[in-house]
Design goal:
This protein has 134 residues and is of the alpha+beta class. It is built from four helices and four strands. The two termini are 16 Å apart.
Amino acid sequence: MDNPEPILLFDGVCNLCSGSVQFVLRRNKKGNIRFASLQSEFGQKKLKEIDLPVDYTSSLVLIENEKSYVKSDAALRLAKHLSGVWKLGSVFLIVPKFIRNPVYSWIAKHRYDWFGKKEVCWIPEPKWKSRFLD
C-alpha cells in the first residue's frame, strides 16, 4: 500500500455509512484517517488491490499497516483512532468474529431500508476535503 495512514473506504451513497464517516471525522482528533468512497476511482483501485470485487459495498473497508479489514474488524479497529471513550470500542475485538460479523452483516443488509440511500455519493464539507483521497 502506498499510504501509511489508515484509509477508510465506505459506501458513498449509504446514509448510515456517510453518517459514520462524519462521526469519525469529528472524533479522529489526530486527523490521520483518510477516506474514499468504495465507488470512487481510488476506492475501486484499492478493492482490486485487496482482491475484493469492485461492486463490494456490504462493509466498510479499513486499510491499516498494509492490511485490509472488513465488517466488524474494520469498525472496531477504526475505534482505536477515535478520541475519548469511543476508543474503548476496540475492546470488542475480543468477541469472536462468528458472533460479531453476523450482527454487522444483518445491519449492513438492512441499512438502505432503515437509513436510506442517496442518488449520488456524499460530498464532504470543505473543511474536511483534504482528508478525502478522491
